[in-house]
Write a structure and sequence with these properties.
- The structure holds two protein chains of two kinds.
- By secondary structure, chain A is of the alpha+beta class.
- Chain A has three helices and four strands; from the N terminus they run βαββαβα.
- Chain A has one domain: Alpha-Beta Plaits, CATH 3.30.70.
- A four-stranded antiparallel β-sheet of chain A has the order 2-3-1-4, with helices on both faces.
- In chain A, a hairpin with a 2-residue loop joins β2 and β3.
- In chain A, α1 packs antiparallel against α2.
- The longest helix of chain A has 15 residues.
- Chain B is of the alpha/beta class.
- In chain B, α5 packs across α6, α8 runs antiparallel to α9 and α8 runs parallel beside α10.
- The longest helix of chain B has 29 residues.
- The chains are: A alpha+beta, B alpha/beta.
């Protein structure tokens, strides 16, 4: 199953390292990353594959949320189908 | 990979524009709960609801987390209770069982304490109607509805007359809570069998044993989309609304199918209604004001609402294979901060509200009127709405609260999704003679379509 991880918040050193490290620990593969900084505002979108992850998506979501709190940014993971449904014909 | 801007747009819709799935409603048939003994029927009803809806709150929580879209209400609708309890007439006991089952399952409301009397009232239905005030006063989560008219059958004015009296009694029995029992009672014309929204949801006789109907929402998203195009003409505004409604409905369809699969139920319909809440940024009235009205209720409101309602349907229809329920913009007064403001500033009057209900769903909804409003006036308000529904082949409804001891200009606070209601003025000229005539208003000529 694939999902979109989005990270939004004020830029600081090590956000990508921390998020990718957390995903790595859960055996979640990053397939694509796009990241920009606009006026100190950090925005990162990742397409990830959870097929080798043993945790449920709800558990992954909670772990990423906690990591976001530590980093002072908002991190969420959403099943890719919500975006496919809303934006693809 | 998905377009980055699309992803950010969805996140922004959810985070700052209050996009959510307003309700996942499980329709449950109670026909197989009927038994030779009234007590057994009550037990069967409680057991079946608890069995079918046991996991609805948990499953909706999981779906909300996985897809990142909030699901606000989890509800159950059941077969009209007036039919299920007809043999023993133990309607009050069934109401208590419904309330208990709703509490056990952790759901918001259970709808279906309902009678369909649009053509005639049987003896057991007449009795059922008399149980409404006590049943609604004694329960917290039970919602009731009574269908008094259809395009095919005309208007049952005997039922309309009775409902005026019953609404007054409901208000008096819950006077200490602002007449809140009336907020749980809808009088319909041309009610639909698959409506997921309360207080009017029931699972019709033609529905499946266990079915998921979903109501989407997102007035804030529509307003924001229009806001970005301040100089667009109305054709362009309609296009913007259509595109937005498409996206909102697709999210609802996804949630509906997933919920049905996980709850072992049939996917029924997606209801396209734009449903407001009292919080800022979640108002249908503010969409109309964004379109160019100083305040909702101003001349032009009916046209603006007609455009909005039609565009939402056109966008939504393509997004889901099964559209149903009420599917139209809701304009409840107490549940929409823009409507509340317009009622307070004098822009919105009941007469204009009635005109607006001819082009949207659902009707005179969550309107507080003075506590001393005559029962015949309440019946006449119902009759007018029923006439709009009957002639226009659409659902209309009245959910009106004659708030005890309150007068025009007072404010009643209900809290939560029910919001606060400014007490609105009604025309006090008497319709008593008209209402007392009773009988049936014949179905209109265009009901004969065969």
């Amino acid at each position: 199953m694939k999902a979109i991880v989005s990270v939004l918040g004020k830029d600081k050193i090590g956000i990508i390292a921390a998020v990718s490290g957390t995903l790595f620990k859960m055996n979640i593969n990053i397939e694509d990353i796009s990241q920009t900084i606009m006026q100190d505002y950090f925005t990162m979108i990742m397409l990830v594959d959870l097929s080798n992850c043993e945790k449920k998506l709800t558990e992954v979501s909670e772990i990423l949320k906690q990591k976001g709190k530590e980093l002072g940014v908002s991190i969420r993971i959403q099943h890719e189908d919500i975006f496919n449904a809303m934006h693809k014909l | 990979m998905l377009n980055r801007n699309d992803i950010l747009e969805t996140i922004s819709m959810i985070d700052s524009q209050n996009l959510d799935v307003r309700t996942v409603t499980m329709g449950i048939s109670l026909f197989d709960c009927m038994s030779g003994s009234g007590a057994d029927t009550v037990k069967n009803i409680y057991d079946k609801i608890c069995r079918k809806a046991e996991n609805i709150v948990k499953v909706c929580g999981e779906i909300a987390t996985e897809y990142g879209i909030p699901i606000i209400n989890k509800r159950v609708s059941v077969t009209p209770v007036s039919l299920i309890g007809a043999a023993e007439r133990n309607y009050f006991d069934i109401a208590l069982a419904l309330d208990k089952a709703a509490k056990t399952c952790g759901i918001d409301f259970v709808g279906g304490y309902t009678a369909l009397v649009h053509k005639a009232m049987t003896d057991y239905e007449k009795y059922f109607l008399t149980t409404l005030p006590d049943a609604l006063a004694a329960t917290k989560k039970v919602c009731a509805s009574v269908n008094v008219a259809t395009t095919r059958a005309g208007i049952n004015m005997d039922a309309v007359r009775i409902m005026g009296k019953i609404i007054k009694k409901c208000a008096l029995l819950t006077a200490s809570e602002g007449g809140i029992a009336c907020a749980k009672l809808v009088v319909f014309a041309t009610a639909v069998e698959d409506n997921p929204f309360m207080a009017g949801a029931f699972n019709g006789a033609g529905e499946d044993d266990c079915v998921i109907n979903v109501g989407v929402s997102g007035p804030g998203v529509v307003k924001k989309a229009i806001e970005k195009h301040p100089d667009a003409d109305l054709t362009a505004v309609s296009e913007i609304i259509k595109k937005t409604a498409y996206k909102i409905t697709r999210a609802g369809e996804l949630v509906a199918r997933e919920a049905a699969k996980r709850l072992n139920a049939t996917f029924g319909i997606v209801d396209l209604s734009l449903a407001p809440t009292p919080i800022m940024g979640d108002s249908v009235a503010h969409i109309l004001e964004e379109m160019g009205l100083e305040s909702v209720g101003a001349h032009g409101s009916t046209m603006a609402l007609a455009l909005l309602n039609d565009a939402v349907k056109k966008g939504g229809v393509m997004a889901s294979s099964h559209i149903g329920g009420l599917s139209g913009a809701f304009i409840p007064v107490s549940e929409d901060c823009g409507m509340i403001d317009a009622a307070l500033n004098g822009s919105l009057k009941i007469e204009k509200l009635e005109a607006m209900t001819s082009v949207c769903s659902v009707g005179i909804d969550m309107v507080a009127v003075p506590g001393d409003t005559d029962e015949n006036i309440i019946s006449a308000i119902i009759a007018d709405e029923a006439a709009i529904g009957m002639i226009n082949n659409k659902t209309t409804a009245v959910r009106i609260i004659p708030v005890p001891d309150k007068k025009e200009g007072d404010i009643v606070v209900y809290g939560g999704l029910l919001g606060k209601a400014p007490v609105m003025a009604v025309n006090k000229k008497s319709p008593r003679k008209l209402i007392e005539r009773g009988g049936r208003v014949p179905a209109p000529i265009h009901s004969n379509r065969n």
